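Sample A.
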Amino acid sequence: MVMNPLASRLLQDGLDMHRRGAVADAAARYSQILKFEPKNVDALCLLGLACGELKRFAEAVDLLRKAVKQAPKHAPAHNLLGSALKEIGRNEEALASFNRAISHQPDLMEAYVNRAELLMALNRWAETVETYDRALAVRPNFFQGWCNRGVALERMGRLEEAIASYDRALALRADLTAAHANRGNALAALGRHQAAVDSFDRALATQPDFPEVHLNRGNSLTRLGRHEQALASYDRALAISPDMAEAEFGRGIVFRDQTRFEDAVRGFDRAIELNRNDAVRGLFHSHRAEALNLLGRFQEAFADVSRCLEVAPNDDEALYAVSLIELLHGRWREAWPRYERRIALKIGIPEGFSPPPWPPWRGEPLQDELLVLRGEQGLGDHLLFSCFGAHLAKLGYRIALWTKPSLEPLLRTVPGVERVVSDIAALEGTSDLRWTSMMSVPGILGVTPETVPRNGPFLAAEPDRVAAWRQRLGSHGFKIGIAWQNAGASHLDKLRSAPLREFAALSDIAGVRLISLQKGRGVEEIQAVGFGERLETLGDSFDAGGGAFLDTAAVMMNLDLIVTPCNAIAHLAGALGRPTFVALMHVPEWRWLLDRDDSPWYPATRLFRQSRAGDWPGVFARIADAVRARTAQAN
């Protein structure tokens, strides 16, 4: 169709106005054309485009429908129609229009981009990736496409592929801020925090005032334990965006990790004040509750627990944090269901772990099935919760324990247990298997502090090792085995550990022999204490074999007492039924509960608690008095 001269002139005038940004004037010119050429496809498309830019989307849809009716294979018209339909929320029709545009013109990049952006907005990530793949086949140097493809892959959890996609974008455009920033996020999600920080730094080199990148950089620095640098990143984020609740929350986390709990509470207060998202606010309340709990401000902590449950009834991280507080306070019935949220959060679960291909056990009676209890979290938890292997065996269940390789020899001594494995491949060929996590068993059974199974000692030392250590240690003196450091490195692990110097009060008691059970971190303190020469160490061969704690267990059977803070040594001594004094921080780990000097888990264990935060001297003065009383009885 040949356009008449007037229409041609009006169209050119409209295009010139459109390019200058005079969209309303351009629309008027296109409208004039349609008065005498109502089927003019170019005018219909351009007026539809202008109406979209003027937010007159319904009018745009009407015009563009007329355009594609006149020219059914006009790919740009279908693309424009899709964009207008998207703006009024008619997403499936919009996708159909983009599809038609692509089918009529397979190299129309705008249609691929519009389709992908709509799919991203709909969280349809696999289709987004497929669309970008098709677009990149047409234009391989489309750097923004590689970047956006990475975002979709990241949302699907395909993090390594996402990083590769960001790398392709950066190879094409090295200063693409979004690619550096998103690459950092993917690396952080993989736990590669130093590499994440490096990517965030490159993003900030191109765009220094990007508050979200400063925030995420602070989060990775926090995970790396570089607390002052993390605070600087959060402060920079807040300088740019003063209402960024997440940065205030990050500051609270750093203060918590530094055991500055009052400052942590203030940081969480500010985060809660700024934030209006219920799910995130629930998380903030749960962390403030933790900090208040550690300060001993229990009533306030439970007020936060209530707020958390009100605003975030289904948030895994918040509910898990709440469960730890409830467990500490003995509210086990309420806590156990929420404690299961740890599984979704992968708390203590090795990277790459997949549930076994057997039906889960939820407490139902079993006949000949073998019930596999999977150990989790730290060594102490494997030791403590193996008591449920003995308990369930006593109830008539066939039990296998699935544990760390180093613990296999020791856990084979749990009474009634048929198998102990560190690799489930060892159970191949075994029929009728069921499984659950070891730390889920008390919740399944509805255990409370009053109903913890009391089956006596549930671990045992090897008799030959016991005899060998008896000969080596001799029978003289009141032998006390001591440990002082927790093996972990978190803020709570540091608080749970007692400095070796505090044991000086025991070293001065007549007739007492102090024997070190400490391995690894903390051994260096021996050289720094005045009684170091009197502290007996057990040599480099002590527990140097493949089996964890085999020598430690044998030594414990030859000791009169074990004194230790909260660590795996405390749980091993308790499981062996040995007399044990456990020195606890003011607000301890939940397994020790509050306001009691005994343990529901270990009848032979006595608890000595700080009367106020950090008061180790007071704890060890009371322990020394109790040791004197024991030595007097022994004499």
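Sample B, a different protein:
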Amino acid sequence: MTTRLPFAQPDPLHAGPALRALRESGPIHRVTTPVGDPAWLVTGYDEVRALMDDERLGRSHRTPQTAPRSRASALFGGPIGEFDDEPAGHRRMRSLLQPHFSPRHLRELEPRVQTLTAGLLDALERQGPPADLHAALALPLPVLVICELLGVP
């Protein structure tokens, strides 16, 4: 029997019981996507690193119309991009973005990130209890920081 995604996660800060059980039983599992397609779920750190470093894997697929889908979305559920062009496209995008993520540039950005964080926390305090850190901080802060990194107002 394969496990069907998504997993119930009663506490957003901790893995749900089904994912915890899978992690404890091994690093690689056969699962079924929400639309019923078979897939692999890799939960082990070393295994994920090996997959991320494997140039044979990516977001595209040789035959996108037959590729497993993660959800029933015409735009976002399946493979993205052209299979043969993916490595070159990845290198091109990486070379464009790399300067914005250099250690020096990130150090220079630190005061601005502190200011953005303080502003979000001040707004949260003004809102009063109860506090939803996910909506008030965890969602907007990464977007604001990436916009700062890329120079997007």
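Observation for Sample B: The helical segments are 17-25, 45-53, 86-97, 103-127, 133-138, 140-150.
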